[in-house]
Each structure stands twice: as structure tokens, then as C-alpha cells.
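Worked example 2:
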Amino acid sequence: MTSTHEPGHRSEITLRVNGKPHTVSVDHRRILLDLLREDLDLTGSKKGCDHGQCGACTVLVDGRRLNSCLLLAVTLDGSEVTTVEGLGGEGEEPHPLQRAFLDRDAFQCGYCTPGQICSALGMLAEAAAGHPSHVTDPDAPSGRPVRLDRAEIRERMSGNLCRCGAYPRIVEAVEDVIP
């Protein structure tokens, strides 16, 4: 039996997390979510299903929304990772989307909220870049920003589950920050 602590099973990687560089030695099987929560003490991202189906662990990696429970940390060397803790900055006002979630009461238990907010930010960037969704009008010009109505927001956020059913409020919060 081979020990999992042998040098060949670990690699040193550098990640920029919430604007700060972190160089860590990681086991090749370690997922980003565990690295964030256990090694960097960033507990905003939640472990929900551990299968990429609920979205509670959603973070932004190089600006794209991804489920951190599915990402091997070793594959992210050199990446920029943004968690919910990095959105407002230290000692600053909350990010406008965080403020909208508070103003609209777009959370109840709050467990899914960090993933919902990170997913919403990624979704806004995707729509601005012209990436279509399943409900985007097929006649819409390719590569142009997609207009976000309620149907678009619901479809694009459908990968993030809310146990409490705060979906209408989440949609309203996202609508509040659409430029």
C-alpha cells in the first residue's frame, strides 16, 4: 500500500484568492472547496451536495463561475479565485449584489447565498459577453450582450438550489443590479 503522504502525491501551487497570492502544497486529490475552507479559512463557500448539483460551493475562477467541489486544486495553479468574502473588499461596503440580496431579503437560511451571489456575478458577465442560454431568443445577434429578463435570470441561475425557496427574491435582487 502506498502512503498518500509521499512527495509524489503533492504539488506546490500558487493561487490568487480574493486578490491575495497563496502558495500551498496540495494533495493531488484535494478539491478547491476544501482548500478554501480548511486551508485558507474562507468558509463562505458551502459544501452542499459534493457532486456539483446544488451550487452552494460556486466561486469565480478566472472570472467564470464554477463549482469548487468539482475542481482539483492542483489543476488551478496560477488561477484567480474569487469567493464571496472577496467581493466587497476588506472594511468596504458590500458588493452591490450583496446589498441587493439584503435589500430584497433574497435569502432565508443563508446557506446557499454565497454560491447564489457568486453564480449571479458570473451569470451577469456571461450575459454581457453574449453567451446565450436555453431561453435566449435564437434570433438574437450572436456575441452581443443578452438582455436579462426574468426568464433569462431564472434559467441562468437554475444550477443553484435554494432549500428555502427564495427564488423570486433572488431574481429580484439580480434585476436590481443589471446595468
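The chain is about 30% helix and 15% strand. The mean pLDDT is 93.
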